[in-house]
Amino acid sequence: MNKKTRAFLKWAGGKYSLVEELSKRLPTADTLVEPFVGAGSVFLNTQFKHYILNDINADLINLYNELKDNPDEFIADARKLFVEVNNDADVYYAYRKQFNESSDAYERAILFLYMNRHGYNGLCRYNKKGIFNVPFGKYKRPYFPENELYFFAEKSQQATFTCLNYEEVFQAIPENAVVYCDPPYVPLSKTASFTSYAKGGFDLDDQANLANLAESQAFNQGNSVLISNHDTLWTRKIYAQASLDVIQVKRTISPKGNKRNKVGELMALYKSANADFEI
After folding, report:
1. Domain boundaries 16-55+163-185+199-270, corresponding CATH code
2. Where in the chain is the domain with CATH 3.40.50.150?
3. Is pTM, for the whole model, over 0.85?
4. What is the Cα–Cα distance from 255 to 250, expressed in whole angstroms?
5. Please, which of 115, 129, 150, 187 could form a disulfide with 192 given CB 3.0 to 4.6 Å?
């Protein structure tokens, strides 16, 4: 098996540790569609001819397009911010303010990468006004992911990046595609909700609607859909028409590393009649 590739972004809920489990559940197809691409670990560690990679977070997609279109310049400019003097709370908050006030796409992309690596726990969070508000992370030496950036830039030549609502993505899925959905997860408790990675959110109605779209896509349009989510009574109910199985994974968003207990991860596969799997 080829060596796994890490995403260049730190990302809450990233799927690097689940790449093998996800890959063996994805049928073969020409195109992989990801309505919630996040940091892109599945994209980076699968081999499809083409990718349609979407996220509702406009800053994330803007960063990917800037990196795809001009990788050498982007990486050189981003590297300039990863110096010791910038690993400081006052500097971080000044750059965060600059980011929130900027309308320049290239500047926002550079600062988004800087904040991702210098901010707290790899979070990406906005308030109701769309203001990025992740606090300083206090890391000894933030890592500049140069090799990961170049790998992503090269592979992104096979990808089309979009910033759409997940419903719009489902309306434009091409033939001979497979869809992987990694939506904001259903909370395990009333206090555990974390869906504000982009302005808006993702509520239980969206969760049920996504399941309906997946069912229709697989059984009516002929494209299989795989969804991952927390294993709860609610998710088992809304994914009742899918093939379900569970794997145990470590939670990675807890700030206390020694208390990151394993939780059940539900894999819901809506398999089309013509789905084929590589063994």
Report:
1. 3.40.50.150
2. 16-55+163-185+199-270
3. yes
4. 13
5. 187
**Can you tell me whether residue 266 is helix, strand or coil?**
strand
Looking at the chain, the domain(s) classified CATH 1.10.1020.10 span 65-148
Q: Are 144 and 113 in contact (CB under 8 A)?
A: no
pLDDT of res. 202: 86
In this structure, which amino acid lies at residue 116?
N
Q: Which residues are annotated as a binding site?
A: 11, 15, 55, 182
Distance of CA 193 to the CA centre of its chain: 17
**Given this model, what pLDDT does residue 200 score?**
57
Q: In which band, very low, low, confident or very high, does the pLDDT at 34 lie, cut at 50, 70 and 90?
A: very high
Q: Are 218 and 225 in contact (CB under 8 A)?
A: yes
From the list 69, 73, 226, 83, the residue with the least C-alpha distance to 152 is 69
The answer for residues whose C-beta is within 8 angstroms of residue 105's C-beta and 6 or more apart is: 62, 66
Measured CA to CA, the distance from residue 86 to residue 123 in angstroms comes to: 19
Least confident of 45-59, 87-101, 126-140, 247-261: 247-261
The bridge status of strand 31-34 relative to strand 177-181 is parallel
Q: Binding site for S-adenosyl-L-methionine: what residues are annotated?
A: 11, 15, 55, 182
